[in-house]
Amino acid sequence: MFTEAPVAGHGVGFILDDTAAEFNHFAPNFGEKYSPPHLPVSVQDWTGRELSRVYSDQFGSYNFLVPSSFTITRRSRRA
């Protein structure tokens, strides 16, 4: 079955602070670079308009899901 719905974009990442180290024994990145918690991550289109905003979790990780486009480009059909 063919659908004209475009595929969504998915992003995964983490935030690191190069100037500090993680000293919490219970953190998954103990002994590595510090990951600041609860920072905003903005996803913008090419004009600078914000599409989505997510926040990192307590360990600096984030993920987001955004639409690939809002309209479908249709090819003209000639008979």
Number of helix segments?
0
**Largest β-sheet summary:** 2 strands, antiparallel
User: How many domains, in number, for the residues?
Assistant: 1
**Class per helix and strand makeup:** mainly beta
Mean pLDDT: 81
Instruction: Estimate the strand proportion.
Output: 35-45%
The tally of strands reads 6
Shape: elongated
Low-confidence stretches: none
Explain the overall architecture:
The chain is mostly beta strands and 79 residues long. It has one domain. It is built from no helices and six strands. It has strands at 9-14, 17-21, 33-34, 40-44, 50-55, 61-66. A hairpin with a 5-residue loop joins strand 4 and strand 5. It is elongated and about 50 Å long. The relative contact order is 0.30.
